[in-house]
Design brief:
Layout: E1 3-8, H1 9-19, H2 33-49, E2 53-57, H3 66-70, H4 83-99, E3 102-104, H5 111-122, E4 128-132, E5 147-150, E6 155-157, H6 162-166, H7 173-180, H8 195-204, H9 208-213, H10 226-235, H11 237-247, H12 259-262, H13 269-279, H14 283-298
Parallel strand pairs: 1-2, 1-4, 2-3, 4-5
Antiparallel strand pairs: 5-6
Length: 299
């Protein structure tokens, strides 16, 4: 089965921005710390992993997703990205193109939805996906043969490993988050239902729908305060279903992809040299790009 690497780019851009000092600037005084960190990540990924098929997904906005129409408070707890960071996102996307990697973003859908849609579209063609991220939300996309790669921790998880790592099987992750809520994204869940309780419920019931269809069984479960949990579930049913609309990754967004469009190209060394000159980067990344190009030429 051909392997398709799907990169959750925004995580790596944010991480670089907050871990590399912002006094790293180009000749015009514009910060390039996030760009440099992302360039190192992408170059290392390409050189050492050598993916044949690759897509890099970026978040475009925290306030224009279809989820904001469903629930205006979605992600409203997050501060807007600093201007110095926003300016670097476009340059990170340009870098991907120079490196030969397809990049995607959307004002309507999030990077998770882009990754989910590409994985879903390519699966019937025999592709297995490697999700390069550390966002547990994306674990819901893992099918048999796929891989969740926590790149920073150097840990990889297959379908059978997800439950031990995150508490529930991949296909139940959206329901799990609907029950517990997601403070990072300002998603309300069912009050009083934490990770342990949600894991017990979804070990007993196949889905949120199955849970609510058999709510009368919840007080009989062997867990502390089962009757109270059943009462809270009944009281907050609408909140749980609203949350699932927010936590479920959209795998059917309008997006045209093919094996040809996802096949990685060779780095454009001329364009990269000019790009790195403008950013004020030294020889290390240029030499790495040359090695990546030679790898593809001899593959």
């Amino acid at each position: 089965m051909p392997s398709l690497h799907l990169v959750d780019a925004s995580f790596f851009v944010f991480r670089a921005y907050y871990s590399i000092p912002d006094h790293m600037t180009d000749a015009e005084g514009q910060p390039v710390n996030a760009l440099y960190g992302f360039a190192r990540f992408m170059s290392d990924l390409l050189e050492h992993e050598r993916p044949e098929y690759l897509a890099v997904a970026f978040d475009e906005s925290l306030a224009s997703s279809f989820r904001n129409r469903i629930y205006p408070a979605y992600k409203a707890n997050r501060d807007p990205a600093p201007i110095a960071l926003k300016q670097q996102f476009a340059r990170c996307r340009e870098l991907c193109r120079h490196l030969g990697a397809a990049d995607y973003s959307s004002p309507e859908y999030e990077a998770d939805d882009i990754i989910g849609t590409i994985a879903t579209r390519m699966r019937p063609a025999g592709f297995r996906s490697t999700l390069v991220t550390r966002d547990k939300d994306l674990s819901q996309l893992v099918h048999d043969g796929d891989e969740f790669w926590d790149y920073m921790a150097e840990q990889r998880f297959g379908y059978e490993d997800i439950a031990a790592r995150f508490g529930v099987r991949p296909e139940r992750m959206a329901d799990y988050l609907a029950l517990t809520g997601d403070a990072v994204d300002n998603v309300p869940g069912v009050p009083g239902v934490g990770p342990k309780t949600a894991a017990v419920l979804l070990a007993e019931f196949e889905s949120l729908d199955d849970l609510y269809a058999n709510l009368a069984r919840v007080p009989t479960l062997k867990m502390r305060g089962a009757a109270g949990v059943a009462a809270r579930l009944a009281e907050h049913r609408s909140a749980a279903y609203l949350a699932r609309e927010l936590t479920r990754i959209a795998c059917d967004m309008p997006l045209v992809v093919s094996s040809a469009s996802l096949r990685r190209g060779s780095p454009d060394l001329v364009a990269l040299n000019g790009f790195y000159d403008a950013a004020g980067f030294g020889p290390m990344l240029r030499l790495q790009a040359e090695r990546i190009g030679r790898q593809l030429a001899t593959a």
